Amino acid sequence: MPVVMVLPWPAAQGLLRKCWEQLQRKLRQSRPGFPSLQWGPALAVQGPAILTEPANDTNGSKEISSFLESIFWMAAPQNRRSIEVNRCRRRNPHKLIKVKNNRDISPECGHLKQKHVLCGYCYEKVCKETAEIRPQIEKQEGGPFKAPTVETMVLYLGETPSKQDQGKRIIERERKRPSWFTQN
User: Fold this and answer.
1) Which of 63, 81, 172, 182 has the fewest CB atoms lying closer than 10 Å?
2) What are phi and psi of 102, to 5 degrees?
3) What is the sign of the dihedral through the CA atoms of 67, 69, 71 and 77?
4) Is the model more confident about 128 or about 54?
5) 72: Cβ–Cβ under 8 A, 6 or more apart, which residues?
6) Any bridge partners for residue 105, and if so which?
7) Cβ atoms of residues 20 and 57 within 8 Å
8) What pLDDT is stored for residue 131 in this prediction?
9) With b meaning 16 or more CB within 10 Å and e meaning fewer, what string describes 38-62?
10) How far apart are CA 47 and CA 4, in angstroms?
11) Element housing 176 (H / E)
């Protein structure tokens, strides 16, 4: 006698019971003297319980429908796309990368950059320089909310304040002025 392993959820148990009943009916229909139905591939499912008696429930269709409703159904294409259609779709001119003609060489570092945009390498230099200036500004202010309302001037090694710089906050740096940091 064949043994069927049952899954733990009830919907699968009902489905397997129905299959078991159909198998028993077909085995009873084969008469002696006539060739029996050929055995086909079987479904083996691992589970904790063994089903030995046929089910006598009348609501099996509800269990099967609830089992099918619990499956996440995905949309399937109705027709196969040909290779030509796929390639035309993927290589559509609207999807290809556009050639940029607004490229220029940075006069400071020599790297490529877009016109009217600061070069990325030069911007890193600016970020490092301002990160070094900020602690000096915080040291002069004495706190984050004590900033004066006057303009700030950064003077590098060998520079002196002009008459226009009178009344401005002056930050002095002990190094040579970078070429990209203009003095205004």
Assistant:
1) 182
2) -95, 40
3) positive
4) 128
5) none
6) 112
7) no
8) 93
9) eeeeeeeeeeeeeeeeeeeeeeeee
10) 9
11) none
